[in-house]
Amino acid sequence: MSPAPSRGAGRPGLGARLGPATRGLVGAAALIGVLTLLARVAGFVRGVVFTGSVGNTTAVGEAYNAANTVPNVLFEVVAGGALAGAVVPLLAGPLARRDRAEVDRVVGALLGWSLLLLVPSALAVAALAGPLAELLRPGAGLADQRTLATAMLVVFAPQVVLYGVGVVLVGTLQAQQRFAWPALSPLLSSLVVIGAYLLHGVVAGPARAAGEEPGGAAVAVLAGGTTLGVVVLTLPLLGPVLRSGVRPRPTLRFPPGVLRRAGGLAGAGLAALLAQQAAVLTALLLGGRLGDPAPGSFSVFVQVVQPVSVLPYAVLAVPLATSAFPRLARSAAEGDRDGFARTAALSTRAVVGVALLGTGLLVAVAPAVQAFYGGLDPGGGADGDGTAYDAVGRAVTAIAPSLLGLALVASVARALYALERGRAAATATVTGWLGVVVAQVVLAAVLPGADRVVAMAGGTSLGLTLAAVLLLRALRRAAGPAAVAGTGRTLAAATAAAVGAGVVGRLVVDAVLGAAGGGTLPAVLAAVAGAAVTTALAAALVALLDRDVARAVLGRLRRRGGGGPGTADGPDGAPGAEDREDAEVRGDAADGGAPPAPGGRTS
What we know:
The chain has 603 residues and is mainly alpha-helical. It has one domain. The protein has helices spanning 25-53, 59-84, 87-97, 100-127, 129-136, 145-156, 159-175, 180-204, 207-210, 216-234, 238-243, 258-288, 297-334, 337-376, 392-399, 402-418, 422-446, 452-479, 487-516, 520-545, 547-562, 577-590. α4 runs antiparallel to α7 (159-175) and α16 runs antiparallel to α17 (422-446). The chain is globular and about 60 Å long. The relative contact order is 0.13.
């Protein structure tokens, strides 16, 4: 369908919202941080509820986790990579020009191509659900587990289309610096899925713990509630997009000159996401089919180890990376190299600081994580029972270093996409994810099957660290030394703080667990105590080791006491000089050990 004719290049409410002076880098990050904190808390609770209501080592839980991986992987392979890095850069230029008609056409074309590719893919999943279930072979706990996985795949198939629509809508909102709904929709989705898990536990009754076949109603609640959660994750975003002034009509025609840019950005993103999905499939095979892994290895990895590790990344690092991306894209579109380098350096330093704080936190609370989840699972999770829970503490420790790599992939790859250096971003990211695959396979061959989840966690850290190093080198080459200025100093200070604080926090956790004994409540108390000690000590050490960061924090406090930014936007919607200076202070403060509090696909 052709796009509607333009009704004017500057309808009020679109370009005017690009860059208010009150939205500096960390001002926007604070908004995202609050909503992301709530969403991630709900996502964390969702994983806890799944463990207690369905179980990671039960046959149903293993079938669910394996089947629910299919729509995620298929979406990323078919369209996710093509969309991930393309939406915001493609919209940055027309938004800066306040060309509403071109914005509508670009968004409409992205939606049109997404539907063209993803609707047949979803139909293929539903039609081939049986063979796919046989290929997955998620476990041997139930004689008719293939039937169970087949039924789930049919219900999960529409998620493929919903994910594509959601990525386009999220990118459209973020390009306009509208961060609230993209951060809020995962919260609403998690609440829906939590309800489905709880209801499944009630409907399934004692069968879930006894390993018996669940009834059709229990399977329908579990699978249908999960897909409903993806509906809630995606479709409510259409309202904010329309209210922002965007009126997309799905089409297969891009505006003149945009198709080539879209193809370049899409190709780079696709390569990176293909490599990432190779890592997902490797973990699925290592955890369920290859060798002799401990029962529940894949489920424990994706429902316990990964969510726990991603929590500090999503709450601390993602808000900074996300809020910086539209500014980076706008600076690149306007040819403002100095502004781009300044924003890139500030966001990179901030992300490094908060990611390493998260690393220290994971090292500290790892034993408490094992005690907590192991006590919840109806399929068994006690120490020494032979399931993957025996290795959770070691796995969380092994995956902790991946936070730095994951955070820099999110931040620096965005900066390179904003410069339309998609090939450089793709090369580094692809190399990192392929490094994850190789490292996981090697570690799985070296370590015993009981430590399969440790092999997957350690391989993740090694590969993502490699990606981070390559991305920083690529950013320096693309934007000059100013784009990474101060990163080395912050990296050294934050690493020392994370190691020192993490070790002390771990001692506190071990002491609390030793004194209070096992169980979920002692595990919670130990985690809270260890996290508090780690955070306080890490902040003090960063202030001691990096005085520039400490001065930035004090400068921010003084500025906040004296008033806000001093200038209004110019006619092009760009912040004035004083607002840029204020954004610098906020950016430096954010990387000084006191950062603001997933997004992404949550099903």
